[in-house]
Amino acid sequence: MVAVSVSQRIASDDQLARLLQIGIVLEEVVEARAHHHYQSLDAELDEEIETLLADAAEESAEHRQRLESLIEGLGVDSVPFDEIESLVDARYGRTQPEDFDGILYDQLCNEETAYKFYDDLIEAIEESNAEFTIDRAELLDELRAIREDEAEGVSEVTEVMERR
Amino acid sequence: MNTADQYLKTIYVVQKQEDGPASTGSIADSLGVSPASANEMIGKLEERGLAEHEKYKGVRLTDDGIVRARDALQTYCIIERFLANVLAVEEFRDEARELEAVIDDTVAERLDTIIDRQPECPDCFDPETDACKCLDIAAAPVEPEQ
């Protein structure tokens, strides 16, 4: 066996589908947490944060649908949102941010994590010679577009944090 | 998880299993790499102060190496637990090994917010089964009795 590195790159449709499923779960976590944060804002609503969270939840839902279309092309089932939502519900109390700063910081982590995930996924696909059932160029275009949204999300949250 | 972290995690586990320095052969076997590749990476870990290599004995992690190895093992446990309990993957061990290189620590931390990991993690990792001892593999919901 000659292995230069232990890093394994994506070698099959199944592995790709699994990683896309993980992407869906990450988006679901972002969506559910943003929704929770949004609901936890009390009567003294902060319009700026409210809009930011609503946009983040909407964007995650849209990313989720785009990922679902990709894995549909691979003939694999998606991950049911209500199950993830109930997992987030069950565990949210333990990891809930305590104030606006905490909410913004959590949102920043969400966006940064999603960016890192797509960045690593794109790199792994670029380095792989595997033939996928779905078109590689379209797959990469879609993932790069989603990664770009996440990069914008990071800048938006950072701007709000810096202004406050 | 990067390659260095995969090595640190493996050395940590082998060291525990062998109750002493980890031999290069065991490390290479565990990772499925050639002894030459293993030696090369062990040299890099030594340069970074994360491991010490004793001739004819094997590799021992430094305190800094142990801290990083435990973090890496924890990340691996999160991936296994997430695959087994959230995505209900039967072959979660094999898949965790396949996917660990593509899953960054920050991503694992976010996945950790929806899994139920034990506070003793990663000490609950059992090298024999290559999985957490407390991992409830029969994750399917129990049907209520009629």
UniProtKB/TrEMBL annotation, chain B:
Domain (HTH dtxR-type) ranges: 1-62
Gene3D superfamilies linked to this entry: Winged helix-like DNA-binding domain superfamily/Winged helix DNA-binding domain (1.10.10.10)
Domain of life where this protein originates: Archaea
Gene Ontology MF annotations: DNA binding; DNA-binding transcription factor activity; protein dimerization activity; transition metal ion binding
Record's keyword terms, sorted: DNA-binding, Transcription, Transcription regulation
Pfam families attached to this UniProt entry: Fe_dep_repr_C (PF02742), Fe_dep_repress (PF01325)
Record carries keyword Transcription regulation: yes
Record flagged with keyword DNA-binding: yes
Secretion signal span: none
UniProt cross-references to SUPFAM superfamilies, sorted A to Z: Winged helix' DNA-binding domain
Similarity field: Belongs to the DtxR/MntR family.
Entry protein name: Iron (Metal) dependent repressor, DtxR family protein
Higher taxonomy: Archaea, Methanobacteriati, Methanobacteriota, Stenosarchaea group, Halobacteria
